[in-house]
Structures are given as structure tokens and as C-alpha cells.
């Protein structure tokens, strides 16, 4: 029995175990049947070679990209061979084709792909033979060519190589990712949607990555900061990324989850000086997600989005991340960020300060300004809820499984409290287990408040002004001109 047949049998038997077939809990080699079978624990198996579950991981894995191979298929079948490059992980335990890697391991291994059986021992380097097979398709170790023929891959290592037990599998990125979302998310719709994310701190970056996992296809990222060591305890980016612009770190995290996404990055701050650039991006976006934590940038983005008639979702944590809030703005339909600041000034000003830049910018605050600690754990509930609201906006007007949430997520403003922080209005909240009627920690509250009809951004400010001060309406054109 060849090495590769043996691997195949182990794979099949392991699958039987994984499917929890009743009474089968152990693998043995049945010498009469010359195959590996799954039997009940305790069954007597004389003369059998026992294989434990640990043996399933006995082979290293070489992963090839199906998409890449389909693309190169005409060349490979015509010319007969093709160079391929792998990223080597964990001392060669996993070799992943570089075309699949957003970030590589730093150790690269070259190989040659050969169409048909390799004749003799290769002169040097790894050779992977692509050979026709009658194995069923939909297996990880089977590749279906563009002309619909099933192939398997056989790895031939060079003579002097000690690691000889590796199996070759194929990764078909897009269909395999879509399969996990099918029926829940309308991936064909989301693939065409464009999200503009302004502010890629902890919350903003998490939202962007969640949307990528959900299948959103186009991203525009705007942030001026670089990832610092202090960010790492909260941000999805890690120590290896320290010093890089947060937009670039986030782009790579998006591509790790959705390699087919289009990601456009701008290292820029959300300030009035960049108004035209941001307004241009807003024009091409279906939804704007604002994760900046200072009021000026939120109001600027609000003004741009309302005048462009684009929906926007604003998220933020309260100080020391004891809680957080989300405001969803559908221009002219629901209250805007400016309405929110006028209606609930205390709520609007209770923001955490998570970077020194923001600490410097919040000069309007009457409280001491310093970078405040906060836990990733406390920011994530807000980020995941924001991502859900964002998906609902992106699927608006389309039939979707998520539409059942529309009656639950109907309010413009959402509030979440992580702990009864001393010194806040939430300090005396009853314990979670004791209250159903009063507000508690760890529950989402959707809160309704009215749009300001005379809001300077989304309402008719001038009419209100004229009424309030008893100005002669015939003066209105002159006033408008001055404006
Ligand atoms: Zn407004």
C-alpha cells in the first residue's frame, strides 16, 4: 500500500469518527480487509495496528491555491511544469502557497508543479505532481480542473530531505468562505457594497474586520495614526505591526479574512482641511462608519454625510470604556449627530480618550484630558453591535435573513453599559440578575429621540431662526445670500 493510499484511508476513517458514527471511537488497521476501520472502544483487535486520534495530525500539510491553479491551468497543461513558492510555517510543518498569504512567514520554499506523473527523482527541490484521480470531488485533497476533471497532488521531496510525510491539499478561497455565510448573509449583495471607515482605532478596526468576514467587498479606510505598542492590548493589530499606519494594518487584517476585497487606504485625519477629500469618498460609499473619538470630526463627517444623503453609523466608548453608544443616522429620516449633541449634550460628550492626539484635540472638555485605559473586552460589544447595524444598512431594501432584526433595531441611538462605573448616572444600577424592568449592565438599549426640525445640519435652521427672532421673512433672501 502506497504512502498516499494510507493517508487517504486515515482521512476517511477520521471522517467517520468526526461524524460521530454510533459506537465507533477508535481506529484500527484491519489486516484481513487491508484497511483502517473505526471500531468501538474496548473491541478486541488482535494483530491490528492501533491508530489514535493524535495520528491524524501526523502529516505536515502543503496548501495550494485552487484559484491560482485554475488561472495557470492552460499554461501548466501546455508547458508541463510551473514554479510555485511557499511560505514555510512552524519549521516546515505547514507550507502555504505564497499566493494565498497576505502576510508570509519570512521563510520561503520553492517547488515545481508538474502536470502528470513525475518521472524519476527530481534533481533538486520539491516537486508536486498533479495526477488524475477517481476520488470524489469536494475533498480537500482533490482539485477540479476548468475542464471538470478531478486531480490529486503527489509530493516528491528531494533525496536529502528528512520531513517526508506531508499531504497536499487545495484551498478554494471564495467558495469555501461563502459557504459559511450562505443563507445568513446575502453575500452577492454585500460583495458590491462599499463602506467608508473613518477612524481605525480599536472599535473601527474591529468593525471593518467583522464586515470583511461577513463578505463586504469594498472598503475605504481613513485614519492618520500609526499603531503603537500601547494600542496592541485592544487593537486587532499585533506587536509585529507596531509603527505601521493603522489603515495599512487594518487593510491586511481585512484581506486575511476576505482576500478578494478591494481596500483603498488614506493616511489622513478627519479634519476640516480634508473636507473635500472625505466628501469625495462619501460620494462613492454606500455607508459611512465613524469610529473617531472626538466631537469635531464626528460633526464634520455628519455634515458631509447629511448633505450627500448617505447613511452613517457612529460608535464610541465612554470614558475608561465603562460603556458605549452607537448613533445611526439616516439623513432627513432620523436625528443626525448635530441633533444628538443638541438633544443629549451630556451623552454626546462622554467619550473615552484613547490616543494622545485625541487627548490634545478635546480642548472643549471640562474634565482632565489624558489617555484613559479601557479593555478590549469592553469595546468589542459596541463594535460587534455596530457591525450588525452596518450590515442591516448595507442590506436595506433587499430581502435578507437579517430583516427580522429590523423591528428590534429600529431606534436611532443604542446604549450599552459594561459596569456600574462610580461617579456616573449608572453607578446605582440594580444587579443584572435582579432586574428586568430597570436598566442594567450587559444589555442593549435602543433609545428614541426626536429629530430637531431646526437642526442647522439636517433641519431648516433658517426658518427656526426667523421665527425665534421675529425677523421679517422678506429679509430671508438677503440672509441666505450672506450665508
Ligand atoms: Zn440634525
UniProtKB/TrEMBL annotation:
Asked whether the keyword Transcription regulation is assigned, the reply is: no
Which BP terms in the Gene Ontology apply to this protein? cyclic threonylcarbamoyladenosine biosynthetic process
Q: Name one Pfam family in it.
A: ThiF
Which InterPro entries does the entry link to?
Answer: ThiF/MoeB/HesA (IPR045886), ThiF_NAD_FAD-bd (IPR000594), Ubiquitin-activating_enz (IPR035985)
Keywords for this protein: Nucleotidyltransferase, Transferase
Q: Which residues form the THIF-type NAD/FAD binding fold domain?
A: 176-350
Q: Name one GO molecular function term.
A: tRNA threonylcarbamoyladenosine dehydratase
Question: SUPFAM superfamilies recorded for this chain?
Answer: Activating enzymes of the ubiquitin-like proteins
Which protein are we looking at?
Molybdopterin/thiamine biosynthesis adenylyltransferase
Organism (species):
Rhizobium loti
The taxonomic lineage of its organism, from the top, reads:
Bacteria, Pseudomonadati, Pseudomonadota, Alphaproteobacteria, Hyphomicrobiales
